[in-house]
């Protein structure tokens, strides 16, 4: 794929007459307290000739939960994948525009994609542990990057002495709220865990490489209500230390766990972005109100 910063091609303008709403409305400019972690500016994504994201700009505050909602096919997953350049792996995908992480452009030629994806980790809809032991799953990333006993551990623990792999594994599993359930069977195969446990293990695996941002694509949609509730609690806890961006189809879930919500509608258009309570209780856009109240989508 190309990630060039070229001028977008000619495309039909959306007009106020078509939407009954102003183009580039003020309500997509969400002012929040705190520091911006990710800033997206004029983002377009195409798969071949098909547009999937249409001129989206928004800023994501650090140490918070941002929910991305909208009907099927509106571009939520595509947008999420732009935040750590996972769309690079899709040949037909073309990304134009800018995404900065802590003020630094990630769509530059000099971006180290391995480093980027360590800082911006991802958790998928289907839990996808490796067919290895629970311990090996968590230690996989740090071992691969040669970081056990070295720099990453000092960064995580704030000290430079010889912290070992066991400590990293325990810490990551504790952070993912699964330690008590697996501490006596760390050498068992991860595939023997329940779906909800596997998903929390995948979150532990993501945490073990020391990300700042965690992207989650419908992380609970394959889980039962109890496992879902554990993941929701975990997401809220993680936001104390991490910036979490979560795609969900479940509007109640978005309302429960997120600080701010971005509503995408068909064609990859960001229609409204703002404080979650305001979006759900008093959206400014009629189309968002119609979507949230189930009139379409
Ligand atoms: N790998 C791909 N190749 C071609 N087109 C794609 C690809 N991935 C997504 N698309 C198209 O891009 C558009 C947005 O898809 P995307 O999966 O981002 O939407 P979504 O809102 O996450 O959908 P859902 O809620 O159903 O998961 C859709 O029209 C989809 O068909």
TrEMBL record:
Residues 1-25 are annotated as: Disordered. SUPFAM superfamilies: P-loop containing nucleoside triphosphate hydrolases. The keyword Nucleotide-binding applies. It holds the Pfam family ABC_tran. It comes from the Archaea. One of its GO terms (cellular component) is membrane. GO terms for biological process: phosphate ion transmembrane transport. The keyword Nucleotide-binding applies. This is Phosphate ABC transporter ATP-binding protein. It comes from Halococcus saccharolyticus DSM 5350.
